[in-house]
Design goal:
By secondary structure, this protein is α+β, with helices and mostly antiparallel strands. The protein has one domain: Glutamine Phosphoribosylpyrophosphate, subunit 1, domain 1 (4-Layer Sandwich). The protein is built from ten helices and 13 strands. The radius of gyration is 20 Å and the shape is globular. The termini are far apart. The protein binds aspartic acid (ASP).
Length: 354
C-alpha cells in the first residue's frame, strides 16, 4: 500500500465522519459537468462583477491570470468596498496597507506583495513580481519602490468614509486612552466605551479561474484585518495560504481570519486533498474542519468550543467542479459559468445562531 493510498483512505474516513455527523452540507455549486462549462470564474461574495469580467475576458481569449486580475481590479478600485484597495480599512495608525498574491497555473509561477501602501492595485504589482523579478514576494517599502519603478502612481487610499470608521474604532475600542467619541454620538460616553462596541473586521477578494483549455490561475487581494498592527501580514499574500494553483489539479483561495489560514496552509491543503481525490466541496470542508480543530486558544473559542471567527475556503477543480465552505453558515460565493454570473451558497460547519 502506498503512502498516498493511506493518506487518501484517512482523508475519506475523516470526510465520511464529518458527513455522518450531519455537518457536511455541500454547496449546490458542485457542477458535475466539467470543463464544458468553461470559462469558469469563482470568487468571494463581493466578486460578482469580478467573475463576470474574468469570464468575459477568458471568452475573448485572455490568459486566466490576466482575467482574474482584471476582475479583482474592479473591487480594488471601488471605494465602497472597505476590505480591498481604495477605501480599505486602515491599520491601527490609520494607514491603509494592502496584501496580494497571484499564481499562474501553466507556468506554476507566483508573485506577491505585502504591507504595501499607497498603491490601489496591489494585485497588478504582485503580477509584476511574478513577471519582472526572480522573486516570489516583496514587502513594505521595497514593494512600494518596486511599484513606482514600474510607473505606478502613489495615491492616498484612506477615503473619508474609511477614516471615519477607523476614528470611531480609535475613539471607542478602549477606555484606557485619551481618545473620546463625540458627545453627540451617545448619551453616555463611558458606557459606549465599556461596551467595546466595534470589532475588528476582515474582508478580501479571492478569484480563481479556469478556461476551456483547462488552464487555471488565481489571485487574492485585500486591505486585511482592520486596525491591525502596522506591518501585519495576513494569509492573502502567502502563496499556499491565501491562494494556490496546481494546473493539473485546481485553484483554491481563502478569506476570513488570515492567522488561522496561515497556520493550516489553507489553499495548499485544499489542492493537496483534491489531488488525492477529494471533490472541491470535500476538500474545502476538510480544511475548514481542520482549522476549527486546530484552534486551541480559549480566547478564540465560544462556550461550545467553536471558533468565534470565520474562514472561507474556495476551490475550482481542473474538471470544472467548484465549491466553497466556511466555518459559519450564510456564506456565499460568486460564480460565473455557462455565461451567467450568480451568488451560490457555501457549505458550512456550524449554523449561525438565529
Ligand atoms: N484573510 C484576510 C486577512 O487575514 C482578511 C479577510 O479575508 O477577511 O488579512
Amino acid at each position: 500500500m502506498t503512502n498516498n493510498a493511506v493518506t487518501r483512505r484517512t482523508f475519506l474516513a475523516s470526510t465520511a465522519a464529518i458527513a455522518a455527523a450531519g455537518k457536511l452540507r455541500p454547496a449546490r455549486a458542485i457542477a458535475q459537468t466539467g470543463q464544458r462549462n468553461a470559462p469558469i470564474a469563482i470568487s468571494s461574495a463581493n466578486g460578482l462583477r469580478t467573475v463576470e469580467k474574468a469570464a468575459s475576458l477568458m471568452t475573448d481569449g485572455a490568459d486566466t491570470l490576466d482575467a482574474v486580475i482584471a476582475g479583482v481590479n474592479i473591487v480594488e478600485a471601488d471605494p465602497s468596498d472597505h476590505s480591498v484597495g481604495l477605501g480599505g480599512l486602515p491599520n491601527e495608525d490609520g494607514i491603509v496597507e494592502l496584501d496580494s498574491s497571484v499564481m499562474h497555473g501553466p507556468t506554476h509561477n507566483c508573485g506577491a506583495v505585502a504591507a504595501i501602501r499607497n498603491i490601489v492595485h496591489p494585485s497588478r504589482v504582485a503580477k509584476l513580481v511574478l513577471e519582472r523579478t526572480d522573486h516570489a514576494m516583496i514587502v513594505g517599502q521595497g514593494a512600494l519602490r518596486f511599484a513606482k519603478a514600474h510607473g505606478f502612481k502613489e495615491q492616498d487610499l484612506l477615503t473619508d468614509d474609511a477614516r471615519k470608521i477607523w476614528l470611531r474604532w480609535k475613539e471607542s475600542h478602549s477606555d484606557r486612552d485619551d481618545w473620546l467619541p463625540p458627545l453627540e454620538a451617545t448619551d453616555d460616553r463611558k458606557q459606549s466605551r465599556a461596551a467595546g462596541a466595534i470589532d475588528f473586521t476582515y474582508g478580501t477578494i479571492h478569484c480563481s479561474a479556469l478556461n476551456a483549455a483547462g488552464d487555471l490561475s488565481a489571485v487574492t487581494t485585500t486591505s486585511g484585518l482592520s486596525y491591525k498592527i502596522p506591518g501585519r501580514v495576513g494569509d492573502s499574500p502567502i502563496v499556499g495560504a491565501g491562494m494556490y494553483v496546481d494546473n493539473e489539479v485546481g485553484a483554491a483561495g481563502s478569506t476570513g481570519r488570515g492567522e488561522a489560514v496561515i497556520k493550516n496552509c489553507g489553499a495548499f491543503a485544499v489542492i493537496e486533498l483534491m489531488r488525492q481525490g477529494a471533490s472541491p466541496a470535500q476538500a474545502c470542508m476538510a480544511v475548514i474542519k481542520r482549522i476549527a480543530d486546530h484552534t486551541k486558544d480559549p480566547r478564540l473559542l465560544d462556550d461550545q468550543g467553536r471558533p468565534k471567527f470565520d474562514v472561507k475556503m474556495y476551490a475550482l477543480a481542473k474538471d470544472g467542479r467548484f465549491a466553497a465552505a466556511s466555518i459559519w453558515s450564510n456564506g456565499k460565493l460568486a460564480v460565473s459559468s455557462n455565461g451567467t454570473a450568480r451568488l451560490e451558497d457555501a457549505a458550512y460547519l456550524h449554523k449561525r445562531p438565529e
